Structure prediction request, 467 residues.
Amino acid sequence: MRRLFGSVRARATLGATLVVAVALVAAGAAVLLSLKSNLMGEAGTRAERSARVIASQLAAGTPYDKLSGLDGDDGPVQVLAAKKRLVRASEDLEKISGTDSDRVKPQSPVAPGGDDDSDDHEEDLEPGEIAGESTFKNGSATIDGDTEDYRFAAIEVETHDRGRLKVYAGAPLAAEHGAVQTALTVMLIGFPLLLGVVAGVTWLVTRRALRPVEGIRSEMAAITASQDLARRVPEPQTHDEVARLARTTNETLAALETSVERQRRFVADASHELRSPIASLRTQLEVAAAHPELLDLDGAVEDTVRLQRLAADLLLLARLDAGERPHDAKVDLAGLAREAAEGRTGVTVDAEPVNVAGSRGQLGRVLANLLDNAQRHARSAVVVTVRREGDLALVGVADDGDGVPQSDRERIFERFVRLDAARSRDDGGAGLGLAIARDVAVRHGGTLTAGQGPAGGALFELRLPLA
Prediction:
């Protein structure tokens, strides 16, 4: 049971059925109340019409025994005098309830006018006048052995010689009861059938609507089991939320595949780069252990420094990949550029004061990496410029070397990519400097691009938001 109602289809079907059920019950109750009220009003109108016919005869002075409409065919009739004394009733009336008197046989008359002062009357009437308003009650009566429910209308009339009289006339409620019962029966039979149709349609519609979701789920389960991130979930040929979910899922899988491939390549390249200095250092130490006089101390130190720099680069990249946010400190790029260029041969700095927010250490690492790359490829000169460009700070590092081919200007920012691998390895480069520089720029909300400089060499432009 828990598994059944744990599905979206079952909950949607149950919810839709409950909503329709509540609506049907409310609508059915309103229909029944309205039907009963209308039929009750019609019965009251018929009863009032009969009562006014009798009252008109009494107002005209018609004797009790000459009154017409008392045969019981149209319903029970009572004529009451003061003190609720019955003076006239329908023929064959055996029992009555719901009026002011339960008597069915007339009582002996009193002297004319003798009853008039006995009751307090709600409405002042002139002799021969009939009250304008009627009162209504529900009751029952037995006529000639048949007992039915009736709607009674009561009308007062002021006579010339018999005082104030009250006429009760009833109209049967059998039609009202029958109509209400018929409507209730139809509802009791039709509502469950309608709810069954609603539940069935909702079940089929939700199954059709959720079929692509099940396809996505099963494909994701298969991807998880096979660990094949190259697979994609099926995308429905629709423009609804499920299709957008499938597209978003495939975009997520593509990003995950790219990230995993990048990490796999990073681990492989890092292992390769670490293997060279470690192997070189091990060889020198093994030779020194066997022949101390052949120890190349400078080479061992150089390999150790190279290994230390590579480990530091890998650690920084790992921290950047983990989402480490830079410190929100104010950094003077002009001063930072001069510090990075200090002691470097052939490097000139043209800078105006520009402040940005971020990590001074990481931004200094960006400038140092850019300068290392520029000096590695420059023929004689490297120029560093710092200036404002709208609401951005622009740092340019240009050299007079051979430049970067158009097709490689994005590839050089990939990790462990070296356009001249042999020379870079000799100079101690591992192909991480530009990758680190771009990652740091992105973490600071900026960009780092490569282009062609004024002297024909490479131009790297770092753009960062002003502090």
User: Anything to note?
Assistant: Residues 329-465 form a domain with the Heat Shock Protein 90 fold (CATH 3.30.565.10).
